[in-house]
Amino acid sequence: MNVAVTLNGADNVGKSTNAQWLASATPGITLTGTIDRWDPQWAKVSRDDFSRWWFVDSTTDEHVDLVFRSFAARCQGGGRLALEDRGYPMLVATCAATAAVKDGTPIGEALAEVEARALRYLPVDRRELHILLRHDPDPSAEARQALARDRAPASDQYAAYQRQLAEAIELQIHRGDYHRLIVRGDRPLLDVQREVREAVARFGVPVTLLAPDRVDRLWVLAGMSESGKSTVGEVLRTEHAVTRLKIGYLLRLAADRAGVTDPYQAWDELTEARMLSEEILRFAALNPGSHRISVESAHRFEATRHVRQIWGGRCQIIYLDAPPAVRLARGKESPDSLASRDATKQNRGTERIAAIADSVVDNTGSLLALKRAVAELVHRTSGDRHPPQRETPVPAALQPFLAAHAAELVDDETALVAVTGSLAYGNWQPGWSDVDVLVVRDTLPVRWLANRSLPPTGPDGAKIALSAFTTNEARTGRLPPRLLYALRQIAHDGRGVLYRRPGLVLHVLDRTADECAARSDLPLVVMTLRRLAARPDTDVRALYKHVVLAMKIMLRADGIDLDASDEVRRAFAGRHPSARVDLPSVTDVSHADWRSDNELTERIRSAASDLLAYDETLGHTRDHGRTTEANDGHRT
């Protein structure tokens, strides 16, 4: 028995695109195409004004007979397993919608008349799976979107046809003419194709299913030779925890899998984009930490445009722009060599990618400027959803003080005022803990800061510290790691917020990038800890806080996020028992006489010494691993 899979739907819904991709994943299937390939009469009627023949010159009987005579020929020539663009029910709907426009017949009656004439063309002994792709479940919206996605302006006649077609499809759905309905809407092609393949697999047709989708963000890097694509890929990898991949490498894997010698010769650009996307899915599925991926170097226009169509909004195309003189100065090749490579890329449409890019980066400046531009791009689309703000447990003694000074910090340019650290999370201890205030403002002139700086101490002698950053710095992650962490916590649960500008979206690092930033700060924390521990006039509170801070960073590398000092102390003891760091609890250190308690001072100094020794041990272990590896390589 022959088998047919048909993709159906209104115009511009993606039938042909999905059919071509599906065919590449279904061994032995024949992509039969549209019916106009199966009867020479189509070439004659489309020679002059095809639309006039379709809607005016032909009678309904002539139109139906040509459509279904071609359909019958396709059924006979499609082989044992066929993939058809518009199956029997869809062809009935198109003929009925045409008759409704041409003859003024109500759509229900038109459907019945077309079916009565088309029945004699139905194949016998054939299993069929009819998949219907829809723009929208509402027929009127269906017709509007079909017209909106058409590149050419629609005539009144064609617009009327789309409305009738949408009504015909709706009637067929209620009758059960289609086996599977998939609403496209604004979803990316990848999601639609996944549903199509799953429907085909359930029908019993052998098809390669897409790998699980674990990709949160995809950056596609494009640009001319020596424009900075590799540099940006490396910045994404090292500073933003993004997995860096090469398009050429992925296509080579896809070609080997498909038994293709040269993917650039064997595949057109749309096929390249689909095969590339499948390899990205496979890589992410096999490497669970690779949920943010960059690929370089995109230099084919249609392939790049199709990649974004496949992935939708989570795909960002970044075009690196620099004039030839700048690119030549950065490279090591001759002007002729660079010009030759540029000519090849121009022929492939590389420069045209700038017109469809989400961001065009001017890479004529310094590396620092480029890194800041990359940070801006990474965090532009990673804003939080403005979670409900939880009540900040501010002690009664501090409430009037904070309310008054927060009011001084708020004006038209202020985006955020918050308390961080122990005060935000309810473990603040009077006489011991600091009051840390964070302000984020559009601009930060020195005069503005000087007029609004908080006093050095607050109620009960609490030390006051104000940290101020611009909205751009907050958005691009140019904050110390402890404040990057604080912003991520604010974005998560809103605790600590004293003022938040209406509509403000916090762009924050994800947990992996946040932890990476904190880990990079550990050498500075360790250096400061050594200085504090070696001082004869020990600053007990500063020493204690730096021990806790070092512990926090080490725990976060293990995936443990904690803020309260006692929680950090207990978790560290359980996670790193060999460190044997005996750090007192906050209750032990925050009593009224802590400044003159020599035994307490020595205990904290000893804890700092033990933690530093443990950190050195970890460093030796890492160095020994590298040495052993090098020696093994030498022996080999």
Q: Which features characterize this protein?
A:
636 residues, alpha/beta, five-stranded parallel sheet, 27 helices, 14 strands, elongated, disordered C terminus
Summary, kept brief:
The protein is α/β, with parallel strands linked by helices and 636 residues long. The longest helix has 38 residues, at 598-635. Mean pLDDT is 87; it is low at 383-388 and 621-636.
Q: What oligomeric state is this?
A: single chain
Mean pLDDT: 87
Rg over C-alpha atoms, rounded to the nearest angstrom: 33 Å
- Helix amount: 40-55%
Describe it.
This protein has 636 residues and is of the alpha/beta class. 53% of the residues lie in helices and 13% in strands. It has a five-stranded parallel sheet, with helices on both faces. The chain has a five-stranded parallel sheet with strand order 7-8-6-9-10, with helices on both faces. Helix 11 crosses helix 13, helix 23 (511-534) crosses helix 27 (598-635) and helix 24 (540-557) crosses helix 25 (565-575). The radius of gyration is 33 Å and the shape is elongated. It starts with a strand and ends with a helix.
